[in-house]
UniProtKB/TrEMBL annotation:
One Pfam assignment: HTH_67
Name of the protein in its database record: Uncharacterized protein
UniProt source species: Gordonia iterans
Family annotation (Gene3D superfamilies): Winged helix-like DNA-binding domain superfamily/Winged helix DNA-binding domain (1.10.10.10)
Length: 290
């Protein structure tokens, strides 16, 4: 049986990632003068404030520190408030284009309030990025306020997942190569980026990748397999598959307290039409306009 936390994650993720994948990204980059790496880093890390780049790298976890250093300095030079404002302006335009008049319906404000209550209920200790987002002021526009509270819950879940990775000895690049490993059962559906996109978006080198795979092979978690050049050439072992499942189950268990409450199911159900509209718009990777 799927846990309440897993259902919530799978339901809400498309709504959240619209902030980082949408047709308005070009205008946002032009308005800030930032490249995609810097805009993403600044837009997601803005609630952390003007801290050292090492803090951002620690909070993002699966990104190469060198890439974060360069991207964060660029975002700081523009101003984190300016980056956040550009993100919100882009998001509001996208939601209005996708949802139309629905974006201004009273139900949106009601949903935002309900997610705000859920976001306020999460424990913040040890969850740096989730805590930063929870402490940040939510926008007044209802559709943006809804996104903001969902972002708090999403980043809080990410903090929980990072904790499980740390406990199991998987650092940032190991988390990437382990997640991207081919599964024992290729028919199982999951979200993955592939080797090239992971390295491009996370900033890891070929040497980083290969050294990580070697560490996982030495631990008996993956095995090398034949694959076309540029493709993932390692597969989970039975021990790796067991750890993979345990990581996901532990992450879900840590988040269960938020979603196993009265009214959470109804809140998710009320959000699904909005999420479907985002998916049907065809702007997210792997989706087509319907």
């Amino acid at each position: 049986m799927t846990s309440a936390a897993r259902t919530a994650y799978e339901t809400l993720e498309p709504f959240h990632v619209l902030a980082y994948f949408n047709p308005g990204m070009g205008d946002a980059l032009a308005s800030t003068g930032l490249d995609p790496h810097a805009f993403y880093t600044g837009a997601r890390g803005a609630p952390l404030g003007a801290c050292d780049a090492s803090v951002v790298a620690a909070a993002f976890y699966s990104f190469a520190p060198a890439q974060i250093e360069t991207a964060w300095q660029s975002a700081l030079s523009v101003g984190l408030d300016a980056v956040a404002q550009a993100r919100n302006a882009m998001l509001e335009k996208q939601y209005r284009e996708i949802l139309g008049a629905v974006a201004d319906q009273p139900e949106i404000a009601e949903l935002a309030d309900r997610y705000g209550e859920l976001a306020a209920s999460v424990p913040r200790s040890g969850r740096a990025l989730g805590a930063a987002w929870a402490a940040a002021e939510a926008p007044e526009t209802p559709i943006l306020r809804l996104w903001h509270h969902i972002a708090v819950l999403r980043e809080w879940r990410g903090d929980n997942h990072i904790a499980t990775l740390v406990v199991n000895g998987l650092d940032g690049i190991d988390a990437c190569t382990f997640h991207e490993a081919q599964l024992l059962d290729p028919s199982v559906a999951r979200r993955s980026l592939g080797k090239r996109m992971t390295m491009l978006t996370r900033g890891w080198s070929d040497d980083d990748w290969e050294q990580s795979v070697e560490r996982l092979v030495a631990r008996g978690l993956v095995e090398r397999i034949d694959a076309p050049e540029g493709k993932v050439a390692h597969r989970l072992t039975p021990a790796g598959a067991e750890l993979y499942d345990d990581l996901e189950a532990t992450t879900d268990a840590l988040g269960e307290r938020v979603w196993a409450v009265d009214g959470a199911d109804a809140t998710l159900a009320a959000t699904r039409p909005l999420v479907k509209a985002v998916i049907d718009a065809g702007v997210l990777p792997g989706t087509r306009k319907k």
